Amino acid sequence: MKPKTAQPDCTSTKPCYRKVFAFSAFLVPLILLAGCTVGPKYQTPTVQTPEAYKENKDWKVATPQDAAVREKWWEVYSDAKLNSLEEQVNVSNQTIVAAVANFLEARTLVKQARSQYFPTVAFAPSIVNQRQNVFRQNTTTSTSNPPFTQYTLPFDATWEPDLWGRVRNTVRGNVAGAQASAADLQNTKLSMQAELAVDYFQLQGQDSLIKLLDETVAAYQESLRLNRVLLATGIGSDENVAQAETQLESTQALDTNLGILRAQYEHAIALLIGQPASSFSMAQEPLKTPPPDVPLGVPSQLLERRPDIAAAERSVAQANAQIGVATAAFYPNVTLSASAGIESTAVSNLFSWPSRIWSVGPSLSQIIYDAGLRRATVQQFQAAYDATVANYRNTVLTAFQQVEDNISELRILSVELGQQDTAVKSADRNLQLATDRYRLGIDPYLNVITAQTTLLSNQQTAVNLRILQMTTSVQLIKALGGGWDAKQMPEGAQLISKTQPSAQPAPPNAKN
């Protein structure tokens, strides 16, 4: 009799070619499907940009070599003290520190999402001492069933192939979110830097007003001395002395009141540079810095120079990726599982070949009915995407509005200041005439007081206009995006690198 041919034994050490082939036949299509990505393809939303700034009329254009604001934009004011304070803001401002932490948190989300590309491997060794119920045995009589110890050293691995791009869209969305966080960080920096510059020039403006009032008080003291002399000689009157005293005392009170706002600006600067207000002070220094020429560039460049616009655009990309993640839920999920290890009831046999255990195989899951949950989820993220597109376009429109506002304000202020300086000269001439006529006994002293008040009012207006001109120039630079550029935004490779990337890597050959 001819012996039967031996069949493959999957419990032996020989390879189970039939099962390996079946598993490979299942795995190959998965690999091919892994390149599929569902969901809409992302495109940057279109926005309308003007060809030129409307308010750029009779504007003094900067020289060609200054076609863009530099990274350290505050250096255009050529103020060493301001430069020093701005450097401290970049390091010590706690709002910026919090924004940096938010960026680093967003960066970790990218790494978390990328981990889903790879299998999960777990090791769960156990030592279990147990005793089974004797009645569980297939015997009719109760027998002795002593306790025993089970030793297990298993390794479990599971992997879910990214067949429909769920993981890829999650990674893309988190990369866009991290880039938006990086842009938010730069926008926070720009806001804090601009706020410091505004407070700095406001402080100097207060010092200019204090200097003006100090000089005015000295002039009024001289007028009071003159009236007292005239009263003593019988030429003047006590009424004139009383009027001079009233004017002097009210001006002294106004001069004293300026110290309140100056102290507040000083405290605000201390907060911005991360120092206690109690230990920070600045010497009095009147405003002397002239407003610089700010290079405007072309309007289309604004989309690349404003960090808030870049953050809004990245939020659109993130919302678009979320639609793809939600769409992938309509397709089946495949999970590949494998387990291997050793198991024995005796330590002496634990590492022997017969103690080995293993299992491997795929599983598939597909939602058949969810009462419209997945469709509603996709519609939710589509609506969220539409909202981010609207926010992006509104951010762009707001940026153009801010630039136009500040250009027009600077342009009009330059004309107004010229007119106001002329008014100050006229008021000063009128005061000289009124004083001479009073000394000659032609006009009463009330005319001198009126001329003095008019001159002081015009001088205060001129100082306030210069303060406004300086702060508006800062706001214009901020509206133009400072010295930032969208090319400085970290790429995906930088976000997942082991090194600590900066939220704003220095561009190549950057010049400050």
What does this structure look like?
This protein has 512 residues and is α+β, with helices and mostly antiparallel strands. It has a single domain, classed as Up-down Bundle (Outer membrane efflux proteins (OEP)), CATH 1.20.1600. It is 56% helix and 8% strand. It contains ten helices and five strands. The protein has helices spanning 17-33, 80-92, 94-114, 166-232, 238-272, 302-305, 307-327, 373-439, 445-479, 492-496, and strands spanning 120-123, 126-130, 148-159, 333-344, 356-365. Strands 1, 2, 3, 4 and 5 form a five-stranded antiparallel β-sheet that branches. Helix 4 packs antiparallel against helix 7. The longest helix has 67 residues, at 166-232. The model is unreliable at 1-17, 61-65 and 503-512 (pLDDT under 50).
Quick overview of this protein structure:
With 512 residues, the protein is α+β, with helices and mostly antiparallel strands.
Would you spell out the secondary-structure blueprint of this structure?
Blueprint: H1 17-33, H2 80-92, H3 94-114, E1 120-123, E2 126-130, E3 148-159, H4 166-232, H5 238-272, H6 302-305, H7 307-327, E4 333-344, E5 356-365, H8 373-439, H9 445-479, H10 492-496
Antiparallel strand pairs: 1-3, 2-3, 3-4, 4-5
